[in-house]
Design goal:
The chain is of the alpha/beta class. Helices cover 52% and strands 11% of the residues. It is built from 23 helices and 12 strands. The termini are far apart.
């Protein structure tokens, strides 16, 4: 997937003017937040579970090499094979080699953000292997030639009228007169089209929410059941997962699962939680003949021990973007890569470089809602600040921004000069604001006033008001 994060501002302007997108985002905003709140309030121990989940991941990351080696041993013991992939290219090649080894021409896929990260679909198509997305949201956006706009709701940016139009355009073998006006009828049609694909595919590819070092098990959570069919019906099951998905034991995964669905969709648990351990054994009624795991690094090991280490705790629930006012306004595609919202504003610079994605950590109000709802207690605002610092240190900011920050820093390091300057400029700006108390335009503030009024400051500085408050206290007056 091409990185278009440098066009974040242009994409955001387009998104804000897109009426269809704004209507879809309005529905998403109202749905996720209320459901999560209700689910959390119904579980008194939720905060304790968050702390426990954080401790599990912190422990695992501190001993990541040991748990990854233990996981590989258990996969091999169960009859599977692990392919280590340092880069996206390594992972793509590993999947292609597996497909070619069984002569696969079609593969079915369960929803996987890692395969989006490595642009697996485009790669397989160029190599003559047809990938078929089986998650309903992923299937819809595959028909449209788009990428996911949300990590758990890939087609969140669309309305059902758009989906109906796409189905009528693509499913030309079905009668045009059929009723597709309701979500249930759209779901039924997608099922009718996708069902045969599971039996035609030689390879099924899924992601993994967790990898269990204790047993060599991969776990996926879904609400549609497509993940189960993708990994049990084809001859070969390929799991593509990143290295930080490993946890020590089944009990550890069970604890984290209790906060995952509640944070993501407001469910106690997802409809399907599927455990896979190796290929089909003698006597098993179904399952794949081969079981492969492609373990991807792609820059994650370089995050260990840095300011961004805690980002590796992320379990991809999407709660941060569900509560983010910036994401609500512009949607996921504006972020220009696989991971949108606050988690993307931290992870994308880590994986593709701040030079190509510096707009993202700046696209935040720092309201703190993302950190407050994160089930893994990841300090997202703090890490976005770290990326802003690195961007400034490398001289990647616009010259006007650097000049402004430099000017402010000059005064901030000289308290007496700072107080003098503010005591002169703030009353003057307050007077210019007049009775209205705001400015329609102001030199050097065009980026703000082009879209909204700028409030005029108070007539007196904060320090002046604080001195007056202390004086009144000393005189026995009301504070």
């Amino acid at each position: 997937m091409e990185v278009t994060s440098p066009q974040f501002k242009q994409k955001s302007r387009k998104a804000l003017a897109d009426e269809q997108l704004q209507r879809a985002m309005g529905k998403a905003k109202s749905g996720f937040i209320g459901k999560r709140k209700k689910a959390v309030e119904a579980l008194p121990e939720f905060e304790a579970l968050r702390s426990s989940a954080r401790a599990i991941k912190d422990h695992t990351l501190a001993h990541l090499d040991l748990y990854l080696e233990a996981y590989e041993r258990q996969v091999v013991a169960s009859g599977g094979r692990v392919h280590w992939a340092e880069t996206a290219e390594d992972a793509r090649r590993a999947v292609l080699d597996i497909c070619r080894s069984v002569g696969a021409r079609t593969v079915t896929k369960g929803k996987s953000m890692i395969t989006e990260e490595i642009a697996l679909n485009d790669f397989l198509e160029k190599e003559g292997v047809r990938p078929v997305e089986t998650d309903l949201g992923e299937y819809i956006i595959q028909l449209r030639g788009e990428h996911p706009s949300h990590i758990i709701g890939p087609a969140l940016h669309l309305n059902k009228e758009q989906v109906e139009e796409d189905f009528r355009r693509v499913h030309t073998e079905l009668p045009q007169a059929r009723d597709l006006s309701q979500p249930e009828s759209l779901l039924g049609e997608a099922r009718q089209i996708l069902r045969p694909q599971y039996f035609q595919a030689d390879v099924g590819i899924t992601g993994a929410n967790f990898l269990i070092a204790e047993t060599g098990t991969s776990i996926i959570v879904t609400n549609e059941g497509n993940g189960d069919l993708t990994q049990t019906l084809p001859r070969v099951h390929v799991v593509v997962a990143s290295i930080e998905k490993v946890v020590p034991t089944l009990e550890d995964a069970s604890q984290i699962l209790r906060v995952l669905a509640r944070s993501a969709t407001g469910q106690d648990m997802s409809v399907y939680t599927t455990f896979s351990t190796g290929p089909r054994r003698p006597g098993d009624p179904d399952g794949p003949e081969e079981y492969h795991v492609v373990l991807l690094d792609n820059g994650r090991s370089s995050m260990l021990g840095t300011e961004f280490h805690e980002m590796l705790r992320c379990i991809r629930c999407g709660a941060c973007m569900n509560h983010c006012p910036v994401y609500h306004a512009v949607g996921g595609h504006a972020y220009g890569w696989v991971y949108p919202g606050p988690m993307g504003a931290v992870l994308t610079p880590s994986l593709v470089g701040v030079e190509r994605s510096g707009h993202l950590p700046n696209a935040s109000t720092f309201c703190g809602r993302c950190e407050s709802v994160c089930p893994m207690q990841i300090p997202l605002p703090r890490m976005m600040r770290h990326w802003r610092e690195r961007e400034f240190e490398r001289g990647l900011n616009p010259a006007t921004q650097r000049f402004g920050l430099g000017l402010w820093a000059f005064f901030a390091r000289r308290p007496k000069l700072y107080r003098l300057a503010t005591s002169l400029t703030i009353p003057a700006l307050s007077g210019l604001g007049g009775r209205r108390g705001w400015f329609r335009s102001l030199p050097l503030a065009g980026g703000w006033t082009r879209h909204r009024d700028l409030p005029a400051p108070e007539a007196r500085t904060f320090m002046q008001q604080w001195r007056d408050r202390d004086t009144r206290k000393q005189d026995g007056g009301a504070a």
